[in-house]
User: Fold this.
Amino acid sequence: MDTVNAEGSLLTALTRDGGARLLFAHTTDIVEYARLRHGCSRTVTAALGRCLTAAAIMGGTLKDGDGSVTLRISGGGPAGSFTCVSDALGNVRGCCEDPKVELPPNAQGKLDVGGAVGREGDLYVVRDYGFGEPYVGYTKLVSGEIAEDITAYYAMSEQTPTVCALGVRVWPDGRVKGAGGFLLQLMPGAPDELADRLQERVEAMPSLSALIGEGKRGEEIAALVFGEIPYDLLETKPIRYRCNCSREKYRAAIKGIGIRELRDMRDSGEEAEVVCRFCGERYVFPPEELAAMCAEREAELRAKKAQSQAPDPEETP
Assistant:
């Protein structure tokens, strides 16, 4: 899967007093790539683009390279559930159940993201740190517009004062004009004065969607957010749309199903086809390979049975 042109960037900035952190993701090419891979409508492009951007930012908060964040939104809308996964290395991927759903503009004349996502449902965030049990956070949806829902999630599930802003601009022909978003978070011990100043600045900002449509980058967004508040740009790192699927993984998954089901697949004499939901890649397994997988699985089961029947060496006289 070629993702050479499906790249963006993630900028991190911190006020010099350590009281607030900003993470801004520029995701225009990432969202355009997802649109093409999934064949998204204009409305779903905006919705999935917001989810991908939010997940990419969340992945940027991970410190362990083996960790991952899964963002899942199920709002009961016609597009179905949205699932996006990111990691600390800057990789993100995502999908929804029906990417071709299109809706009329909302009352404001904009793409009806909330209508496509739905407003009666849940938002889950699963943080897998690569060891121990994953942390699962949850909140009810506020609007289905995603940014407001992410803000509510951090306030209610992680008790972190956060402002999330997400924007995706789509051309009339469906192509992505611009996409990006930010998380602005207060750090522990931040003074009330800083919180008040930041709130005033964010409320006075133009819409992020408009700024992104104008081509504003991370450094310019940080300047608008912080203004005269002293801050430092800590780093800018690449992010990209990258799926971790492979033929080997799907082969192992097929081989791992119940032996009866695997035999039925073998005996049908037909090939098996698996389509990755995150990138649309198709993997085909011909009948002879299914037969080989079945033989391998049967041999493994025989070996396991023989091992379970073997006497314990410590109990042998």
Q: What stands out?
A: The CA atoms of residues 9 and 238 lie 4 Å apart. The mean pLDDT is 92. The chain has two domains: 7-241, 247-309.
